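User: For my dataset I need records formatted as: sequence, then structure tokens, nothing else. Please produce one.
Assistant:
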Amino acid sequence: MKTKFKFVTILIVIMTIGFSFTTLNKITIKGSDTMVILSQKWAEVYMQKHPGTTIQVTGGGSGVGIAALINGSTDIANSSRSIKPAELEKIKSKYKKNGIEIPCAKDGLSVFLNKANKVSELSIQQLGDIFSGKITNWKAVGGDDTKIQLYGRESSSGTFDFFKEHVVKTDFSVNVQTLPGTAAIVNAVSKDKYGVGYGGAAYAEGVKDCKVKKDAKSKGVLPTAATIKNKTYPISRYLYMYLRERPKGETKAFIDWILSPEGQNIIEGVGYFPVK
């Protein structure tokens, strides 16, 4: 009986140690839906190289990820927009830390059109007027005489914030149909000849990218590696990872790997663009 008790005690200790190692090597990432595909690929490749590490990636939107970072339920918040001063202040207030911003990739924010749409290019001003509701018919921008169907992201999305700030520059039209993710927007536009939406360039399958003009006199530009690198595509942005404090341990090793040539080389294969 005494020997059996000792064996059970040893077994429990071994199990506890094993659990501790697993816990120490678990990294949670939450936030931007735009970044889910990229982060999942990073996680997949990294875990193959480091079998003792578990990386959990979930979406929900940039705002959701930053809220999770603030309440302590994620290690890394993915965001397709810069953190807001009020969000940063909450981190400082709660953790007495300044927060860490890490630009990890670049993205061209695409405007998606149905392949059957006659329109193939629009200016920033025209896009702003379309999504704010000033322009409601495709005829006004060289298309068919029919109503424009608008598709966009929910307000918790960093893509929503970025597009509003840099393109719409006012409130969105009440007729925008909000969808939970860029993939859903692409799917809707692919089935709607007169639909238009926006989102990360990596998702543009089954639709066509709209050429975007900086102004009425400029030439329309498509989001490509070259045009985003040389900044000729008008709607480009950084993608960020946010942390409460400087990363340590396995989290630091993972982020260092993402920013290394190996990690950055993965980006273009997924449809985004390296930071450098």
